[in-house]
Amino acid sequence: MSGWLSKLAGGGMLLLLVASICLGGYSSLLSHRLELARQQSAEQQKTLAQQAGLIATLQTQDAQNRVLMAAQQKQEQQLRQQADIFQRKYRDAIKNNKCAAERMPDAVLELLRGTDTSTANANRSVAP
């Protein structure tokens, strides 16, 4: 019986040895995975910090663009109002003027439109 117990004890020890080797290998694998997870977490933290900086920059630029657009719209509105005022003043000025009611000569209209071909040809220099 003692032979049987010694074999059982030797087999148990062998089993414990194999189990401890397996657990040690599994522990090593988990430690390696933990280290990789920590490295990945650190890289993600860097990426998040960079993205936060970019977002802050974009928000600042967006605010500046909104201010510039508001100023541009205000200026365009002022120019439209000024043009309307000038148009009204012009209409009031020519309302009772006989000359303004008459048709302009064709030559004047062509000059104003830039379609006068006779003066364009006359102003050209002739090459020798």
TrEMBL record:
UniProt key word Coiled coil: yes
Keywords annotated in UniProt? Coiled coil
Residues folding into a coiled coil are 69-96
Name listed for the protein in its UniProt record: DUF2570 domain-containing protein
Organism field: Serratia liquefaciens
